[in-house]
Amino acid sequence: MGVIGVQLVVTMVMASVIQKIIPHYSFARWLLCSGSLRWYQHPTEDELRSLAGKQKGQKRKDRKYNGHIDNKPLTVPKDIDLQLETKCITEVDTLALHYFPEFQWLVDFTVAATLVYLITELYYSVTQPSGEMNISVVWCLLVLAFVIKTLFSLTAHYFKLEEGGERSLCITFAFFFFVKAMAILIVTENYLEFGLETGFANFSDSALQFLEHQGLESQGPISKLTFKLILALLCSLIGAFLTFPGLRLAQMHLDALNLTTAKFTQTLLHINFLSPLIMVLLWVKPITKDYIMNPTLEKESVPLMTEQTFDTLRLWTIILMCVLRLAMMRHHLQAYLNLAQKGVDQMKKEAGRISTVDLQKMVARVFYYLCVIALQYVAPLVMLLHTTLLLKTLGGHSWWVYPEEDLPCIYELNSDSVMGAPPVAAPTPASVVETGARASVTQLSVALGGLRTVFSPLLFRGLFSFFTWWIAACLFSTSLFGLFYHQYLMAA
């Protein structure tokens, strides 16, 4: 109990930190209010009136109505010489932002869960406990649940709009990703090495043995066709949720490139945009693994690294790409905020007049939806990061690069090992009640140990490898479509 208590203490301390400290020292608030982001303030009516000059007088019948002046909406020329004033985002300004509580909770909880994961990994590397539950897995699963909830609410917002363009686009991409997932799932392991086939075969065999030990007759828990159909449906939902984040990322990427002039920053922006493609290629066996593991050098095939080392480097590559995307967040958000001035500059090229209310709404709308854009940028990043962490923990991978002869042994469970505990000795019957209680505990422990053999690291390795690859593939597909749309279709 003392060993398990270490993880419980870490969880309780972090829960207290979330409740007491994070509201005052919020990382999400710091991302927006650190002084690096500047937003454009909408002009007041007096400023617009002074810039437009004296407005043409109204007719008497329009001015007088029931004894008082009837003011019509003030309009100004679209080509007005208007320069918007900028201001650094403060904590008071964030109170008016849509979805700011959701953004703050998701980012701060992700930081807390990541800290719990790091502490737990350090604890496991020092003490190397066997057979106890890793509580950081629960934290990572909670993060993924909050991400899915946030993306669902953002996608549902588009379905509530009166215009059906966003709704149709989301449904179209959902069907596209469903067909794409079905096509990907029939590709053999020689090209995409997720390990789904091996994991599912291990899951089916272990489940059959578990059911036989329980005295149940079954042909198997689930057929392979049903298993892949469920995966395709989940992939379709993920693709629908990531449609608008990918489209928005493409627009911010183009605007960020135009905003910065430093070559190094532009290079990082290009790498950040192509990072999902790099992640996708890491699982394409003929391009990466076969070339690295068995390169052809002067008629001899000399492996550059072991398979375990390649898996570790693949995990680290994804982590570094996630860190790069977080570092580039400020450039993308500032590029989005500049849309206010960009819209005013575009308006100046048009003829006619515009009401002051519509002009103020056009400018203010950009800032008020900042957290929606921030969520669309952060949510896929958080989903990808914690899916990778689950792949490492549940898939039995390691963060360290070991020589082939010094690889750490992976603890495999079988029907004789129950949650890493030694076999329970036959109890000495002190009473009928005590004997029955001990028998129940023993039976429950055996059942839990059997379930752990059913859900083996091979199954989790295949599932989370596939979902990590799929999230990156969806991000790249939608952002590439958005790049084509904003670069060519909008320009035309």
From TrEMBL:
GO terms for cellular component: membrane. InterPro entries: Transmembrane_161A/B. Keywords: Glycoprotein, Membrane, Transmembrane, Transmembrane helix. It comes from the Eukaryota. It is a multi-pass membrane protein. It is found in: Membrane. The chain crosses the membrane at residues 105-124, 136-156, 168-187, 225-247, 268-288, 366-391, 463-485. Belongs to the TMEM161 family. This is Transmembrane protein 161B. The lineage of its organism: Eukaryota, Metazoa, Chordata, Craniata, Vertebrata.
